[in-house]
Amino acid sequence: MQRLIVTVIIAFLAAIALGPVVIPWLKRMKFGQTIYDLGPKSHLKKQGIPTMGGIIFALPILIVPVIMSYGYQRGRLMWLALICTLGFGAVGFVDDFIKVKLKRSLGLTPIQKLIPQIIISLALALWAYFDPQIGSALRVPFSGGEWNLGWFFIPAMVFVLVGTVNSANLLDGLDGLLASCSLIDFATMALVVMALAVGEDPRQDGSLTCVMLLCGAAAGALMGFLRFNAYPAGVFMGDVGSFTIGGLLAGVCLVTRFSLLLPIIALAMVLSSLSDIIQVTYFKATHGKRIFRMAPLHHHFELGGMPETRIVSMYTIGTALLCLVALLGVN
Amino acid sequence: MQRLIVTVIIAFLAAIALGPVVIPWLKRMKFGQTIYDLGPKSHLKKQGIPTMGGIIFALPILIVPVIMSYGYQRGRLMWLALICTLGFGAVGFVDDFIKVKLKRSLGLTPIQKLIPQIIISLALALWAYFDPQIGSALRVPFSGGEWNLGWFFIPAMVFVLVGTVNSANLLDGLDGLLASCSLIDFATMALVVMALAVGEDPRQDGSLTCVMLLCGAAAGALMGFLRFNAYPAGVFMGDVGSFTIGGLLAGVCLVTRFSLLLPIIALAMVLSSLSDIIQVTYFKATHGKRIFRMAPLHHHFELGGMPETRIVSMYTIGTALLCLVALLGVN
Would you list which residues of chain B are within 8 Å, Cβ to Cβ, of chain A? Predict the structure, then answer.
C-alpha cells in the first residue's frame, strides 16, 4: 500500500516535470495538431496546439513501475502488460509522426494501422493462452466464477485488444476527456488488482503486486498530464497517448483475466466505438442519413450545444459511477 | 467495503436525482446569486445563476449515511459529525436566505455569522473533550504518535472548526472548485477511517465504520453535484453548501482525532484563508498596497490570465497529490 502510493506520487511528479520539457520541444519540432477535417468546426481554433503529448505520461508509465518494483519478484504479468503498452504506443507514435511530417490529418491508412495492431494482439493473446498464470479462462464479475473460452480465447482477446485501443483513440476528442476517464479506470484497476494480490508476498512472487504498481503509475502519470491537458488544453496526447492508454488498459485486463470488466469501466470507450459504427453503417444503408449529429458520441453532445467542459465532466462522473459498480462486482 | 461502495453510489444517485428538482425550484424562488461586488469583473456574467445548490448534496449527506448504517451499532461519532454538519449548514442556509431575501450580497454581517459558529464549535469541542472515544489527544500523521493538548484542545478545536468552515467558504469562488477539492478530501478521509476501522465488527460497535460511510456519502453526493456545478456551472452551492462541506470535513477530523491532517488535505482552503488575511493585513498596514492581484488566491491566478477551468484543475490535482501524501502519513 505504501509502495503503491509512492509509485502514484512519483509517476505524477515525473509527468509534471516532463510537461515543461516536452511541450516546448513539441512546439519547436512543429508537432502541432492538424485538426481532423471532419471534426466540429469549433475545433478549428485548436489548430497549432502541440500533439504527441502522450509522451508525457507514456514515459513514466513505462519506467516508474520497473523502478518501483525493485526488490520484488516481478514475474511475467507486468512485463506482458508493459510490452502491450509499448507495442501499441509505438504504432501510435509512428502514426503521429507520419501525420506531422506529411502534414496530413489521418497519418497511417486504416489498414496500415490495423495490421501491426493485429500482429501485436495475436502475439500477446497466444502468450497469454499458453501462460500458466493466465490461460483461457476469464473471471466473471458479480458471479465470482470463471468462463473458459478454450481456443476461442485467442480471437476474442485480439478483438478486445484491437477494440480497446481504437476505442480509446476515438474517445480522445475533447480536452481532458480520455485522460480523465482512463485515470479513473486505472485507479480502479489498481484497487481491483490490490484485492487479487492480498496475501501475495511480493518478494517471493510479486506478479500481481507489480501489475498493481503499473496501474498506480498510470493513474499518477495521467493526473500529472491533466495539468497540461485539462480544458483549455495546452497539449494533446495524440495517437501515441491514446494507443498507450488503450494498450495498457487492455493489457492489464488481459493479464489479470478481467477483460469482462472493460464494458463496465470503459463504457465511454465502448460507446465511442459503437456510435461510430452505428453512424457509418446507417449512413451507408440509408445513402446519407445520420443518427447522431456527429460521431463519436461526444461530438453529438457537443453539436447539441453542450459545453465541452460539461461533456467531459459528465463522462468523468459517469465513468466514476461505473467503476464503483465494477468494484462491487469484484469483491 | 461493499457497504461503502453502495453508500457512495446511492448518495451519488440521490444528488443526481435532486438536481433537476432543486435547481428549477431555486430558479422559481429567485434564489439567483447576487454576485459579490468585490469579485473579478468577469464573474458578473454569472449573475442570475441560482445559488443554494448545496442543498443538492447536503440532504444526501445528512440522510444516506443514517439509512446505510442500518443494522450497525452507530455509536456517537457519526452523530457528532452529522450535528456539526447540520449546525454549520444551518448557519449557511440562514445566511443565503437573508442574502436572497434582502437582495444584499453579504447576507449576515461577519459578527452575526461568527457568533453562532463559535457557539456550535464550543459545544462540539466540549463534547469531544469529555467523550471517552475522542478526548484531548490528536493523532500525529507520519509519527504514528499522539499529541495530548489537555484543556487547550477546546480553544484549538474551536479554531479548527471555525477556521475550516470559513476557509471552505472562501475557496468556493470558481465553478466546481470547492466541490472537486472536497470530493477528493472526503474520499481520502473514507480511506483513512477505513484503515482505522479495520477489525471493528460494526454490529457490535460500528463507530468508525459509520464515520467511513458518512465520508463515502459526502464523496458520492459531491460527485453528483459536480454534474451541475462543473464549469460552466448551472448552479452554485452557496453558503449552505460551503458551510456544510467545511462543517463535515472538520467534524470528521474532530471525531477521528485527525485534525492535524487538515493542513495537508485541505491546503487549498488554508491558502484561501491565508491569502485573504495577508492581503487585508498588508493593505491596512501599507494604506492601500496589495500583495495579490485579488484575494483569495484563486482570484489572484484568475486575474493573472489563467483560465478558470485550468485553475480548478490545478487545485484539484494538487489536492489529489496532497491527499496521497496524507495517506502515506496515516498508514
Answer: 1-2, 5-6, 8-9, 12, 176, 223-224, 226-227, 230-232, 307, 309-310, 313-314, 317, 320-321, 324-325, 327-328, 331
What's this model's pTM, rounded to 2 decimal places?
A: 0.93
Q: Which of A309, A322, A323 to mutate to test the interface with B (most CBs of B within 10 A)?
A: A309
Distance from CA of A10 to the nearest CA of B (A): 10
The Cα–Cα gap between A84 and B310 comes to: 33
DSSP character at residue A295: S
With CA atoms as reference, report the closest residue to B249 among B325, B172, B317. B172
Of B2, B313, B328, which is closest to A328 when you measure between CB atoms?
Answer: B2
Paired with A148 in beta bridges are A137
Provide the 3-class DSSP secondary structure of residue A136. Answer: coil
Three-class SS string for chain B? CHHHHHHHHHHHHHHHHHHHHHHHHHHHCCCECCCCCCCCHHHHHHCCCECCCCHHHHHHHHHHHHHHCCCCCCCCHHHHHHHHHHHHHHHHHHHHHHHHHHCCCCCCCHHHHHHHHHHHHHHHHHHHHHCCCCCCEEECCCCCCEEECHHHHHHHHHHHHHHHHHHHHHHCCCCCHHHHHHHHHHHHHHHHHHHHHCCCCHHHHCHHHHHHHHHHHHHHHHHHHHHHHCCCCCCCCHHHHHHHHHHHHHHHHHHCCCHHHHHHHCHHHHHHHHHHHHHHHHHHHCCCCCCCCCCCHHHHHHHCCCCHHHHHHHHHHHHHHHHHHHHHHHC
Q: Which residues pair with B50 in a beta bridge?
A: B32
User: Per residue of chain B (331 residues), what is the pLDDT tens digit?
Assistant: 799 999 999 999 999 999 999 999 998 887 766 666 566 766 766 777 899 999 999 999 999 999 999 999 998 999 999 999 999 999 999 988 888 777 666 667 888 889 999 999 999 999 999 999 999 999 999 998 999 999 999 999 999 999 999 999 999 999 999 999 999 999 999 999 999 998 889 999 999 999 999 999 999 999 999 999 999 999 999 999 999 999 999 999 999 999 999 999 999 999 999 999 999 999 999 998 999 999 999 999 999 999 999 999 999 999 999 999 999 998 6
Using CA atoms, how far apart are residues B183 and B188, in angstroms rounded to an integer? 9
Residue A105: phi and psi, rounded to 5, are: -75, -20
Closest residue, chain B, to A226 (C-alpha): B313
Any bridge partners for residue B32, and if so which?
B50
| Rounded CA Rg of chain B | 19
Task: Identify residue B323 by its one-letter amino acid code.
Answer: C
Which residues is A138 bridged to in the sheet?
Answer: A147
- Give the closest-approach CA distance of A102 to chain B in angstroms: 32
> Which of A2, A223, A320 is nearest residue B223 as measured by Cβ atoms?
A320
Half-sphere exposure of A1 (CA within 13 A, CB side): 14
